[in-house]
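Q: What would this chain look like folded?
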Amino acid sequence: MMTRREFGRTTLAGLTLPAITGRGAGAAPVGGVRLGVQTYSFRELPRPAGGDAVDVVIGAMKACGIDECELWSPQVEPGPPAAGGQASPEARQRAREDLRRWRLSTPASHFAGIRQRFQAAGQTVYAYNLSFNDSFTDEEIDRGFDQAKAIGAEVITASTTLSVARRLVPFAERHRMPVAMHNHSRVDDPNEFATPASFTTALAMSPFFRVNLDIGHFTAANFDALAFLREHHDRVTNLHLKDRKRSQGDNVPWGTGDTPIREVLAWLKQRQSPVRAYIEYEYTGEKGAVDEVRACMAYATRALS
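A: My prediction, written as structure tokens:
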């Protein structure tokens, strides 16, 4: 197992680390707005046996004409996401321990290689989506920051909780790397990121904390995504674009729900805002992930034309 110092030396020897903020080298903006994809959108695509899903993601992005992304960590890490309740508690625990060993022992060169694979395809990983939870050890958290830097990400995004966010403060500040909190719509749990107040609490914890605003979930929780963006845009790294109905409604095809996708894109265009706008395909489509993401990209492009 590599120590953090050994990992850090190999990372620094081979990489120029990203700045805390900046636009990066990704796609030419559409109407001044940087469009991209949360690669979770391609979760249904099969991955090669025994390998990661990085090349699958790269191919899907090419097919959609997208060259900037927020990379979902299970597509980098070994094996598919856990099978939920289908696996026994013992099997889930073994899988969790195996994942921890992989995170702590995999060298920096592996993650630098992932960065190089995206670069060779003309693509940029702006954010690494690593969702810290209570099961993470401190060493695992620390290594996650190193890995995100090696991949070339400027930001870590995390579906996490307020209690875990407090644990992240010293790591974000030591690594000088922003962590953007992602929201869902569970307003019944005060530990979840779901309300404007939960974001306000996190932003007060550290100057390195940011918001990864999911405008669909925010709408489903009956909050105003555009108003929040106007007020807090300087602490927002990227948006997740999806369409949901209000009052905990379903994910639906774009243009059939209550989420102000067009209005948000128009505001970003008017402001020439550096906030990224990333497609996250979550509704049940009929054409498959690549075609559905391509349709969402066309919707966003039309809205910005």
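DSSP finds eleven helices and ten strands in the chain.
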